[in-house]
Design brief:
heterodimer, A: 236 residues, alpha/beta, 6-stranded mixed sheet, 3-stranded antiparallel sheet, 9 strands, B: 225 residues, mainly alpha, globular
């Protein structure tokens, strides 16, 4: 009998630490995720969730420890690593004076994609911004800005998707859209890391769970058990 | 090729932001015009003195306005942490630098299109050398400001008191640009019997080559930090 080959290691963090002045935002984090797997990261405010996701996205350098994305270290091939990563954060990283379409055009040009007006229009329609392509982002509501971030993520089509509070600012339809998107991404064998305070929702969608407390790994297990683990961590 | 393509994308983005908001254009243009006007009040009504000092006043107005323009160019990047969003893409730091530096150069050239005619109106100098000489001085002189200025505005963009830090760091470095710009412009306005104009222009070109190369290489380190 021949065993099916296991998926490649998508993400590996060893003893990842990040300090701010006189305190550790994240201390001694170890993580190994195979391609196509998913991880729910939960914890109280200030537990280190955003710090972790920013470090995995390579926009925040660790104070110590190492990170490898598909076996490559960011310091060896930063652009190659970033090509495989996409982040939707609670900060939307948008240029207020561009239109939604212009933002996608700039993103596509920088990512080395061809200009394609139909693709951009389809992406905007998919995230619920149909007909708003020529509107300046400054006039968008918080929820619309978040939807535009998802359009940008879909345009990038990364192998590893990092979602930091993806449900924030969204209406009911938007929350359902994110649920559907996560399911689609997992079906497409994307590797997914999501931090959220909507723990029950995340537990239903994802496979593995991680509870952070004061920057440390407090609990690791299946995502379905994460709500109970978080409640216990918070009660201590 | 990808660096050129990415630089053009960053340049397009910066130009779109500037043209759409016009905030930076209006603020910096008014500041530059006001500076020229104040110099003319300070120098008095002697038209000979005003003509003699016109080159210096013009370049000082361009220098002072440029710090405002350069500082503003990175404020846009910090709104909503847009720069971090750009860095999340596989963008070469050199492309980011050259895209922004060229956008800043074009902005300063547009500013000079307002300040040069205004200085002619206020100080009354006449052209003794062809206009193309003045244009060449402005292009290479303002490139000397935009090149290191883009790097320094990135360095100081997250610093406390960045509006003070930028001129403190930038002005000592670009003294050769000021000297060459003023001397060259004075020759354009007063005549060049000794044929010195070319030397000042060459100084600016060498300065630009050195700093545009160096800053492009260093920009990635600035972003990392």
């Amino acid at each position: 009998m021949i065993d099916a080959p296991s998926p490649p290691l998508a993400l590996e963090a060893s003893n990842l630490c990040r300090g701010y002045q006189n305190r550790w935002a994240l201390l001694g984090l170890n993580l190994r995720m195979r391609s196509g797997s998913s991880l729910l990261v939960v914890g109280a405010n200030g537990a280190g969730k955003t710090t972790l996701l920013r470090m995995l996205a390579t926009t925040l350098a660790p104070t110590s420890g190492s990170l490898a994305i598909y076996g490559e270290r960011p310091q060896d091939n930063l652009l190659g690593v970033r090509r495989r990563l996409g982040l939707v954060s609670h900060r939307t990283h948008l240029y207020d004076d561009l239109t939604a379409t212009e933002l996608l055009e700039v993103t596509a040009a920088i990512a080395g994609m061809a200009k394609d007006a139909d693709r951009n229009a389809a992406l905007l329609e998919r995230v619920g911004l149909s007909g708003r392509g020529t509107d300046v982002i400054r006039g968008f509501s918080a929820g619309m800005r978040k939807r535009l971030c998802f359009a940008r993520l879909l345009l990038q089509d990364p192998d590893i998707v990092l979602l930091d509070e993806p449900y924030g600012q969204l209406d009911v339809a938007g929350v359902d859209f994110v649920d559907g998107l996560i399911t689609e991404l997992l079906e497409a064998r994307k590797t997914l890391v999501m931090s959220t305070h909507q723990v029950e929702r995340g537990a239903r969608l994802l496979q593995q769970g991680l509870v952070l407390a004061s920057g440390r790994m407090n609990w690791v297990g299946t995502a379905a058990d994460a709500p109970v683990a978080l409640a216990e961590a918070l009660s201590r | 090729m990808s660096v050129v393509r990415q630089s053009l994308a960053v340049l397009r983005k910066d130009l779109l932001v500037d043209l759409r908001s016009l905030r930076r254009v209006v603020a910096v243009s008014l500041f530059g015009a006001m500076t020229l006007l104040l110099f003319s009040f300070a120098a008095g009504t002697d038209s000979v003195v005003l003509k003699e000092q016109a080159a210096g006043y013009l370049w000082l107005a361009l220098f002072l306005s440029s710090t405002l323009a350069l500082s503003e160019s990175f404020r846009v990047e910090l709104e909503d942490d847009a720069l971090e969003g750009l860095c999340l893409l596989p963008v070469d730091p050199r492309a980011l630098y050259y895209g922004k530096a060229v956008a800043n150069l074009l902005f300063l050239l547009a500013l000079s299109c307002i300040l040069v005619p205004l200085s002619f109106g206020l100080y009354g100098p006449s052209l003794r050398l062809p206009l193309v000489n003045l244009i060449a001085l402005l292009v290479f002189g303002l490139a000397g400001l935009a090149g290191p200025g883009t790097l320094y505005s990135a360095m100081t963009s997250r610093a406390r008191g960045r509006d003070v830090m930028l001129p403190l760091l930038l002005f000592p470095l670009v003294v050769p640009v000021l000297v060459a710009g003023v001397k060259g412009t004075a020759l354009v306005f007063g005549g060049d019997p000794m044929g010195q104009f070319g030397s000042w222009l060459q100084l600016l070109i060498v300065f630009d080559l050195v700093y545009w190369s160096l800053c492009g290489l260093l920009f990635g380190k600035v972003l990392d930090s």
